[in-house]
Design a protein that fits this description.
The protein has a seven-stranded parallel sheet with strand order 7-15-14-13-12-11-8. It folds into two domains: 112 residues, Chitobiase, domain 2; 188 residues. Helix 2 links the parallel strand 1 and strand 2. Helix content is 33%, strand content 19%. The chain has 415 residues and is of the alpha/beta class. The protein binds zinc ion. The site of zinc ion has 8 residues, from helix 7.
Protein backbone atom coordinates (compact mmCIF):
# COMPACT_ATOMS: atom_id res chain seq x y z
CA UNK A 1 0.00 0.00 0.00
CA UNK A 2 2.73 2.41 0.94
CA UNK A 3 4.64 2.07 -2.36
CA UNK A 4 1.51 2.08 -4.56
CA UNK A 5 0.23 5.38 -3.24
CA UNK A 6 3.38 7.46 -3.46
CA UNK A 7 5.40 9.30 -6.10
CA UNK A 8 8.21 7.83 -8.20
CA UNK A 9 10.85 9.47 -5.95
CA UNK A 10 9.23 8.02 -2.89
CA UNK A 11 9.12 4.65 -4.60
CA UNK A 12 12.84 4.92 -5.31
CA UNK A 13 13.50 5.83 -1.69
CA UNK A 14 11.40 2.91 -0.54
CA UNK A 15 13.26 0.51 -2.82
CA UNK A 16 16.55 1.96 -1.61
CA UNK A 17 15.63 1.53 2.05
CA UNK A 18 14.27 -1.94 1.40
CA UNK A 19 17.55 -2.84 -0.29
CA UNK A 20 19.51 -1.31 2.56
CA UNK A 21 17.58 -3.27 5.16
CA UNK A 22 17.97 -6.46 3.11
CA UNK A 23 21.73 -5.98 2.79
CA UNK A 24 22.01 -5.20 6.52
CA UNK A 25 20.12 -8.40 7.28
CA UNK A 26 22.48 -10.33 5.00
CA UNK A 27 25.48 -8.76 6.74
CA UNK A 28 24.01 -9.68 10.12
CA UNK A 29 23.35 -13.24 9.12
CA UNK A 30 26.85 -13.49 7.66
CA UNK A 31 28.40 -12.16 10.88
CA UNK A 32 26.41 -14.65 12.91
CA UNK A 33 26.55 -17.36 10.24
CA UNK A 34 27.81 -19.91 12.70
CA UNK A 35 26.58 -20.10 16.22
CA UNK A 36 28.51 -21.86 18.96
CA UNK A 37 26.03 -24.73 18.70
CA UNK A 38 26.03 -25.37 14.95
CA UNK A 39 28.82 -27.94 14.91
CA UNK A 40 28.90 -31.74 15.07
CA UNK A 41 31.74 -31.75 17.63
CA UNK A 42 33.51 -29.63 20.22
CA UNK A 43 37.28 -30.04 20.20
CA UNK A 44 38.34 -28.88 23.66
CA UNK A 45 41.93 -27.76 23.86
CA UNK A 46 44.28 -26.22 26.43
CA UNK A 47 45.81 -22.98 25.13
CA UNK A 48 49.16 -24.37 26.28
CA UNK A 49 49.40 -28.09 27.07
CA UNK A 50 52.51 -27.40 29.18
CA UNK A 51 50.56 -25.16 31.55
CA UNK A 52 48.83 -27.11 34.30
CA UNK A 53 45.92 -24.69 34.79
CA UNK A 54 45.09 -24.64 31.06
CA UNK A 55 45.19 -28.46 30.94
CA UNK A 56 43.14 -28.83 34.12
CA UNK A 57 40.31 -26.56 32.96
CA UNK A 58 40.29 -27.96 29.42
CA UNK A 59 39.83 -31.40 31.02
CA UNK A 60 37.12 -30.00 33.28
CA UNK A 61 35.17 -28.55 30.36
CA UNK A 62 35.64 -31.70 28.30
CA UNK A 63 34.39 -33.94 31.12
CA UNK A 64 31.31 -31.79 31.67
CA UNK A 65 30.51 -31.61 27.97
CA UNK A 66 30.98 -35.34 27.63
CA UNK A 67 28.69 -36.07 30.56
CA UNK A 68 26.10 -33.40 29.81
CA UNK A 69 25.78 -34.44 26.14
CA UNK A 70 25.38 -38.11 27.10
CA UNK A 71 28.81 -39.24 25.81
CA UNK A 72 27.72 -39.15 22.19
CA UNK A 73 31.16 -38.17 20.99
CA UNK A 74 30.05 -34.56 20.86
CA UNK A 75 33.05 -33.47 22.94
CA UNK A 76 36.55 -34.55 21.93
CA UNK A 77 40.05 -33.94 23.26
CA UNK A 78 41.63 -34.65 19.86
CA UNK A 79 40.92 -33.05 16.51
CA UNK A 80 37.87 -34.83 15.01
CA UNK A 81 38.59 -37.04 11.99
CA UNK A 82 35.31 -36.08 10.33
CA UNK A 83 32.33 -33.75 10.68
CA UNK A 84 32.29 -30.06 11.50
CA UNK A 85 33.83 -28.94 14.77
CA UNK A 86 34.21 -25.90 17.01
CA UNK A 87 37.60 -25.65 18.63
CA UNK A 88 37.31 -24.37 22.24
CA UNK A 89 40.58 -23.01 23.58
CA UNK A 90 40.81 -22.74 27.38
CA UNK A 91 43.32 -20.32 28.88
CA UNK A 92 43.95 -19.10 32.43
CA UNK A 93 45.83 -15.84 31.97
CA UNK A 94 46.67 -13.81 35.07
CA UNK A 95 47.99 -11.00 32.85
CA UNK A 96 44.91 -10.78 30.62
CA UNK A 97 43.29 -7.44 29.80
CA UNK A 98 40.05 -8.46 31.53
CA UNK A 99 38.85 -10.82 34.25
CA UNK A 100 37.18 -12.92 31.57
CA UNK A 101 36.56 -13.08 27.84
CA UNK A 102 34.67 -15.38 25.51
CA UNK A 103 35.35 -14.68 21.85
CA UNK A 104 34.16 -16.64 18.81
CA UNK A 105 36.56 -16.11 15.93
CA UNK A 106 35.81 -18.24 12.88
CA UNK A 107 35.54 -21.80 14.14
CA UNK A 108 37.46 -21.08 17.35
CA UNK A 109 35.88 -20.10 20.68
CA UNK A 110 38.45 -18.74 23.13
CA UNK A 111 37.52 -18.88 26.81
CA UNK A 112 40.01 -16.86 28.86
CA UNK A 113 39.89 -16.01 32.59
CA UNK A 114 42.33 -14.28 34.94
CA UNK A 115 42.17 -17.00 37.61
CA UNK A 116 40.80 -20.47 38.19
CA UNK A 117 37.69 -19.33 40.10
CA UNK A 118 36.63 -17.15 37.20
CA UNK A 119 37.46 -19.90 34.72
CA UNK A 120 35.10 -22.24 36.51
CA UNK A 121 32.37 -19.60 36.35
CA UNK A 122 33.09 -18.97 32.65
CA UNK A 123 32.89 -22.68 31.80
CA UNK A 124 29.45 -22.85 33.41
CA UNK A 125 28.44 -19.72 31.49
CA UNK A 126 29.26 -21.69 28.35
CA UNK A 127 27.38 -24.81 29.51
CA UNK A 128 24.35 -22.77 30.60
CA UNK A 129 24.34 -20.51 27.55
CA UNK A 130 21.43 -22.47 26.06
CA UNK A 131 23.18 -22.40 22.68
CA UNK A 132 23.19 -26.17 22.20
CA UNK A 133 20.14 -28.24 23.14
CA UNK A 134 22.38 -31.33 23.27
CA UNK A 135 23.97 -29.94 26.47
CA UNK A 136 21.87 -30.83 29.52
CA UNK A 137 22.03 -27.78 31.81
CA UNK A 138 18.67 -27.76 33.59
CA UNK A 139 20.49 -27.76 36.97
CA UNK A 140 22.23 -24.45 36.17
CA UNK A 141 20.95 -20.88 36.44
CA UNK A 142 20.79 -19.13 33.04
CA UNK A 143 24.01 -17.60 31.71
CA UNK A 144 24.43 -13.82 32.02
CA UNK A 145 26.85 -13.25 29.13
CA UNK A 146 26.71 -13.79 25.37
CA UNK A 147 29.11 -16.70 25.20
CA UNK A 148 30.36 -15.79 21.70
CA UNK A 149 31.08 -12.11 22.35
CA UNK A 150 31.83 -11.15 25.94
CA UNK A 151 34.62 -9.62 27.94
CA UNK A 152 34.62 -7.85 31.25
CA UNK A 153 35.70 -7.47 34.85
CA UNK A 154 33.95 -8.52 38.04
CA UNK A 155 32.67 -5.35 39.69
CA UNK A 156 33.21 -6.64 43.25
CA UNK A 157 35.82 -9.05 44.65
CA UNK A 158 33.48 -10.25 47.43
CA UNK A 159 29.91 -11.15 46.45
CA UNK A 160 28.21 -12.53 49.55
CA UNK A 161 24.52 -13.43 49.56
CA UNK A 162 22.98 -14.74 52.77
CA UNK A 163 19.84 -16.36 51.41
CA UNK A 164 18.41 -19.91 51.32
CA UNK A 165 18.90 -20.12 47.54
CA UNK A 166 22.63 -19.52 47.99
CA UNK A 167 23.15 -22.22 50.62
CA UNK A 168 24.63 -24.95 48.40
CA UNK A 169 28.45 -24.78 48.57
CA UNK A 170 28.69 -26.72 45.28
CA UNK A 171 26.66 -24.08 43.45
CA UNK A 172 28.40 -20.99 44.91
CA UNK A 173 31.46 -21.23 42.61
CA UNK A 174 29.13 -21.79 39.63
CA UNK A 175 27.32 -18.51 40.26
CA UNK A 176 30.55 -16.89 41.53
CA UNK A 177 28.85 -15.92 44.78
CA UNK A 178 30.11 -16.09 48.35
CA UNK A 179 28.54 -17.00 51.68
CA UNK A 180 29.64 -15.92 55.15
CA UNK A 181 29.44 -19.45 56.56
CA UNK A 182 32.01 -20.70 54.06
CA UNK A 183 34.58 -18.02 53.38
CA UNK A 184 35.09 -16.14 56.64
CA UNK A 185 37.19 -17.49 59.49
CA UNK A 186 35.36 -15.13 61.86
CA UNK A 187 32.19 -13.21 61.06
CA UNK A 188 30.09 -10.72 62.97
CA UNK A 189 30.41 -10.24 66.70
CA UNK A 190 31.88 -13.69 67.31
CA UNK A 191 35.30 -13.01 68.77
CA UNK A 192 34.20 -14.97 71.83
CA UNK A 193 34.72 -18.22 69.93
CA UNK A 194 38.52 -17.88 69.84
CA UNK A 195 38.45 -19.01 73.47
CA UNK A 196 37.64 -22.71 73.82
CA UNK A 197 36.52 -22.17 77.44
CA UNK A 198 35.84 -19.15 79.65
CA UNK A 199 37.19 -15.79 78.50
CA UNK A 200 40.11 -15.07 80.86
CA UNK A 201 39.69 -11.97 82.97
CA UNK A 202 42.73 -10.27 81.45
CA UNK A 203 41.05 -10.33 78.02
CA UNK A 204 37.98 -8.47 79.31
CA UNK A 205 37.43 -4.73 78.98
CA UNK A 206 37.98 -2.44 81.95
CA UNK A 207 34.79 -0.32 82.20
CA UNK A 208 33.75 2.00 85.08
CA UNK A 209 36.47 0.67 87.34
CA UNK A 210 35.77 -3.05 86.84
CA UNK A 211 36.06 -5.88 84.33
CA UNK A 212 33.11 -6.05 81.90
CA UNK A 213 32.42 -9.62 80.83
CA UNK A 214 30.46 -8.37 77.80
CA UNK A 215 33.36 -6.60 76.13
CA UNK A 216 37.02 -7.25 75.25
CA UNK A 217 40.20 -5.36 75.93
CA UNK A 218 41.86 -5.05 72.54
CA UNK A 219 45.23 -4.30 74.15
CA UNK A 220 45.17 -7.67 75.90
CA UNK A 221 48.06 -9.96 75.02
CA UNK A 222 45.89 -12.93 75.96
CA UNK A 223 43.25 -11.88 73.42
CA UNK A 224 45.90 -11.54 70.72
CA UNK A 225 47.40 -14.96 71.53
CA UNK A 226 43.94 -16.55 71.45
CA UNK A 227 43.13 -15.08 68.03
CA UNK A 228 46.58 -16.10 66.78
CA UNK A 229 46.07 -19.70 67.92
CA UNK A 230 42.58 -19.74 66.38
CA UNK A 231 43.85 -18.49 63.00
CA UNK A 232 46.89 -20.77 62.84
CA UNK A 233 45.10 -23.91 64.10
CA UNK A 234 42.06 -23.56 61.85
CA UNK A 235 43.33 -21.76 58.76
CA UNK A 236 47.14 -21.95 58.74
CA UNK A 237 49.50 -19.34 57.34
CA UNK A 238 48.84 -19.81 53.61
CA UNK A 239 46.21 -17.08 53.54
CA UNK A 240 43.13 -16.20 51.53
CA UNK A 241 40.74 -16.27 54.50
CA UNK A 242 38.79 -13.26 55.75
CA UNK A 243 38.39 -12.47 59.46
CA UNK A 244 36.02 -9.90 60.94
CA UNK A 245 37.47 -8.53 64.19
CA UNK A 246 34.69 -6.63 65.93
CA UNK A 247 33.96 -5.63 69.53
CA UNK A 248 30.83 -7.19 71.01
CA UNK A 249 27.62 -5.47 69.95
CA UNK A 250 27.35 -2.91 72.78
CA UNK A 251 28.62 0.55 73.61
CA UNK A 252 31.26 -0.50 76.19
CA UNK A 253 34.86 0.62 75.57
CA UNK A 254 37.91 -0.59 77.45
CA UNK A 255 39.49 2.17 79.52
CA UNK A 256 42.52 0.26 80.79
CA UNK A 257 45.87 2.07 80.82
CA UNK A 258 47.05 0.51 77.54
CA UNK A 259 43.77 1.20 75.69
CA UNK A 260 43.68 4.81 76.96
CA UNK A 261 47.30 5.26 75.90
CA UNK A 262 46.34 3.98 72.44
CA UNK A 263 43.75 6.77 72.27
CA UNK A 264 40.44 5.17 73.32
CA UNK A 265 37.78 7.48 74.74
CA UNK A 266 34.62 6.56 76.68
CA UNK A 267 32.71 6.05 73.43
CA UNK A 268 35.42 5.32 70.87
CA UNK A 269 37.34 2.02 70.69
CA UNK A 270 38.79 2.59 67.22
CA UNK A 271 42.40 3.22 68.43
CA UNK A 272 42.80 -0.07 70.35
CA UNK A 273 40.79 -2.16 67.86
CA UNK A 274 42.70 -0.86 64.83
CA UNK A 275 46.04 -1.38 66.59
CA UNK A 276 44.96 -4.97 67.23
CA UNK A 277 44.02 -5.42 63.55
CA UNK A 278 47.28 -3.89 62.38
CA UNK A 279 49.20 -6.41 64.48
CA UNK A 280 47.17 -9.33 63.07
CA UNK A 281 47.50 -8.09 59.48
CA UNK A 282 51.27 -7.85 59.89
CA UNK A 283 51.42 -11.28 61.57
CA UNK A 284 49.43 -12.92 58.73
CA UNK A 285 50.23 -10.98 55.55
CA UNK A 286 48.24 -13.39 53.34
CA UNK A 287 44.98 -13.39 55.30
CA UNK A 288 42.53 -10.46 55.32
CA UNK A 289 41.38 -8.73 58.52
CA UNK A 290 38.33 -6.49 58.70
CA UNK A 291 37.15 -4.05 61.29
CA UNK A 292 33.65 -2.58 61.21
CA UNK A 293 32.42 0.98 60.99
CA UNK A 294 29.83 0.48 63.69
CA UNK A 295 29.05 1.81 67.17
CA UNK A 296 32.34 2.24 69.08
CA UNK A 297 34.44 1.72 65.92
CA UNK A 298 32.40 3.90 63.60
CA UNK A 299 35.18 6.45 63.03
CA UNK A 300 38.28 5.44 61.04
CA UNK A 301 41.74 5.29 62.66
CA UNK A 302 44.13 8.20 62.21
CA UNK A 303 46.84 6.16 60.45
CA UNK A 304 46.46 3.92 57.36
CA UNK A 305 46.23 0.16 58.06
CA UNK A 306 48.23 -2.51 56.13
CA UNK A 307 47.14 -3.57 52.62
CA UNK A 308 45.44 -6.72 53.92
CA UNK A 309 43.16 -4.83 56.31
CA UNK A 310 39.68 -3.62 55.48
CA UNK A 311 36.44 -2.32 56.91
CA UNK A 312 32.82 -3.45 56.74
CA UNK A 313 30.40 -0.52 56.56
CA UNK A 314 26.70 -1.05 57.16
CA UNK A 315 24.28 0.51 54.69
CA UNK A 316 21.50 0.43 57.28
CA UNK A 317 21.14 4.23 57.31
CA UNK A 318 20.75 4.34 53.53
CA UNK A 319 16.97 4.03 52.95
CA UNK A 320 16.11 1.04 50.75
CA UNK A 321 14.17 3.00 48.16
CA UNK A 322 14.74 4.36 44.65
CA UNK A 323 16.24 7.77 43.96
CA UNK A 324 18.29 7.87 47.14
CA UNK A 325 21.27 9.41 45.33
CA UNK A 326 21.99 13.02 46.20
CA UNK A 327 19.87 12.94 49.36
CA UNK A 328 21.30 13.48 52.83
CA UNK A 329 21.65 9.81 53.91
CA UNK A 330 23.53 9.05 50.69
CA UNK A 331 25.77 12.07 51.20
CA UNK A 332 26.56 10.93 54.74
CA UNK A 333 27.28 7.41 53.51
CA UNK A 334 29.53 8.67 50.70
CA UNK A 335 31.44 10.82 53.19
CA UNK A 336 31.94 7.86 55.50
CA UNK A 337 33.24 5.65 52.68
CA UNK A 338 35.63 8.39 51.54
CA UNK A 339 36.99 8.83 55.08
CA UNK A 340 37.66 5.10 55.40
CA UNK A 341 39.23 4.94 51.94
CA UNK A 342 42.04 7.12 53.29
CA UNK A 343 43.11 4.38 55.71
CA UNK A 344 42.09 0.98 54.27
CA UNK A 345 42.40 -0.56 50.82
CA UNK A 346 39.29 -2.72 51.13
CA UNK A 347 35.80 -1.45 51.84
CA UNK A 348 32.99 -3.99 52.02
CA UNK A 349 29.37 -2.96 52.49
CA UNK A 350 26.83 -4.86 54.55
CA UNK A 351 23.54 -4.30 52.73
CA UNK A 352 20.00 -5.66 53.06
CA UNK A 353 17.70 -7.46 50.63
CA UNK A 354 14.65 -8.49 52.65
CA UNK A 355 11.75 -7.13 54.66
CA UNK A 356 12.78 -8.70 57.96
CA UNK A 357 9.25 -8.43 59.38
CA UNK A 358 7.75 -10.56 56.62
CA UNK A 359 9.50 -13.11 54.40
CA UNK A 360 6.29 -14.31 52.68
CA UNK A 361 4.99 -11.21 50.92
CA UNK A 362 7.03 -10.69 47.74
CA UNK A 363 9.61 -7.98 48.21
CA UNK A 364 10.43 -6.44 44.82
CA UNK A 365 13.83 -4.94 45.64
CA UNK A 366 15.98 -5.80 42.59
CA UNK A 367 15.61 -2.40 40.92
CA UNK A 368 16.72 -0.63 44.10
CA UNK A 369 19.58 -3.09 44.66
CA UNK A 370 20.77 -2.55 41.11
CA UNK A 371 20.84 1.21 41.71
CA UNK A 372 22.63 0.75 45.04
CA UNK A 373 25.23 -1.57 43.52
CA UNK A 374 26.11 0.98 40.84
CA UNK A 375 26.39 3.60 43.58
CA UNK A 376 28.63 1.42 45.79
CA UNK A 377 30.81 0.63 42.78
CA UNK A 378 31.20 4.32 41.98
CA UNK A 379 32.47 4.86 45.56
CA UNK A 380 35.21 2.23 45.12
CA UNK A 381 33.55 -0.38 47.35
CA UNK A 382 35.19 -3.78 46.75
CA UNK A 383 32.81 -6.21 48.37
CA UNK A 384 29.17 -6.68 49.31
CA UNK A 385 27.47 -8.78 51.92
CA UNK A 386 23.76 -9.07 51.17
CA UNK A 387 21.85 -9.88 54.31
CA UNK A 388 18.85 -11.93 53.25
CA UNK A 389 16.68 -14.40 55.13
CA UNK A 390 19.61 -16.68 56.02
CA UNK A 391 18.41 -20.26 55.76
CA UNK A 392 14.69 -19.34 56.05
CA UNK A 393 12.27 -19.46 53.14
CA UNK A 394 11.39 -16.14 51.46
CA UNK A 395 9.08 -15.65 48.46
CA UNK A 396 10.87 -15.39 45.09
CA UNK A 397 14.20 -15.89 46.83
CA UNK A 398 15.56 -18.18 44.08
CA UNK A 399 14.85 -15.65 41.34
CA UNK A 400 16.17 -12.69 43.32
CA UNK A 401 19.29 -14.52 44.49
CA UNK A 402 20.15 -15.60 40.92
CA UNK A 403 19.64 -12.04 39.61
CA UNK A 404 21.61 -10.51 42.49
CA UNK A 405 24.52 -12.93 41.92
CA UNK A 406 24.70 -11.66 38.31
CA UNK A 407 24.39 -8.00 39.35
CA UNK A 408 27.26 -8.43 41.83
CA UNK A 409 29.42 -9.34 38.84
CA UNK A 410 27.99 -6.64 36.59
CA UNK A 411 25.70 -4.04 38.22
CA UNK A 412 25.08 -2.47 34.80
CA UNK A 413 23.13 -5.52 33.58
CA UNK A 414 19.61 -4.57 32.55
CA UNK A 415 17.12 -6.02 35.02
ZN1 LIG B 1 42.11 -2.37 77.39
Amino acid sequence: MYICNCSYTSKLKAVFFFGLILSLCCACSRAGARRVSSYDHYWVKAADERVEADRKWADYLFNHLDRRTGSRSVALRQKPAQGTFLQIVVHVDAKGKHDYSAVLDGDVLRLTACDEDKMLWLIYQFLASGEDPRIEASDLPPAMIDIAHAEGDFAFEYRGIYSPSNADPELMPVTASHHVDYDWGLWGHNLRRVFPGEVPEEALAWVDGQRDENQFCFSSELLFKAVEAYVTDNYGEAGGVRFAIMPNDNGAVCACKACMAAGNTRKVATPSVSRFIRRLAERYPHHLFFTSSYRTTEVPPAEPLPQNAGVIISAMDLPLRPDFAGKRPAENFSRKVKEWRKVVSRIYVWDYMRNFDDYFTPYPCLGVLSERLRYFHSLGVKGLFYNGSGYDYASFDDLQTAALACMLINPDLPL
